[in-house]
């Protein structure tokens, strides 16, 4: 673990830690909804440096981790077709399904390829017109506009051999679902800066007002997170519940209007299963009817939103994604479950909480 005293801005960090200590008068529980923030918190020991009255909870901030098991099962079945080139971001390749993962499917002969952008998959569809090229579209609002651009480009090129298996999810409905649980303990949120760079933060204002929780749009560097915690605690101590933008160097209130327009042209909201959180209304994206021919589920005759399959009995990743448990509280952590042999998605993804704890606190 790298404590912040090794970080170039340690003086500023210490000032924020002292400022938080100076204003806090009672315990507070905050949730970050971003896997990148979780990794920074664990890597730099932020949760150990701030006053002990503050509890940081790791929320469902990893889109790979919340992708439902039945969609991964479908991905593996589609990839097994001999005329299919199945494309995915690297993080998804080792996420366990009900039986195996995409990397093992590749080892068994499936043409599974890691890509860095859905546009790479579009190029493959152009180059291999005799194959069906399927892209596993996973991510929050951050990556959805690029997927939408790929769909629009495929439509313009007349590519009838390109489709997506859509697993895009939306952050605000997940936050509402967490806050609607009567047993929740959250009193404030650090919102994901990269999501808000695309979408802005106007959607969060209604959530802050309805549930009376401060929401701080926060970046990923240690100083960002410490400032976000300070702003959140400052509001809580003053009895306020507003949206503030710590990440002003990247985020505007209205977001990126071009990206939003592209996403809304291609997608519309739908109910979505979240691994560990069950179904959340209007929390996912599906292709609009205009682009339905690019839906891999329809092309390969799969149903959407099937009942979620259970995790391994040895894995508590659902509780970790809900923020009710920490990775080290799992009896399988670091023993039966490791990055080489994961039982759950949070141990695999580069944004997963279990992976962060394993790499930094073993």
CATH class of the largest domain: Alpha Beta
- How many domains? The number is 2
Low-confidence runs (pLDDT<50, min 5 residues)? 1-5
Number of helices: 15
Gyration radius over CA: 21 Å
Please describe what this structure looks like.
The protein is α/β, with parallel strands linked by helices and 362 residues long. The chain has 2 domains: 135 residues, 3-Layer(aba) Sandwich (Rossmann fold); 144 residues, HypD, alpha/beta domain 2 (Rossmann fold, 3-Layer(aba) Sandwich), CATH 3.40.50.11740. It is 39% helix and 18% strand. The strands form 3 sheets. A 5-stranded parallel β-sheet has the order 2-1-7-8-9. It is globular, with a radius of gyration of 21 Å.
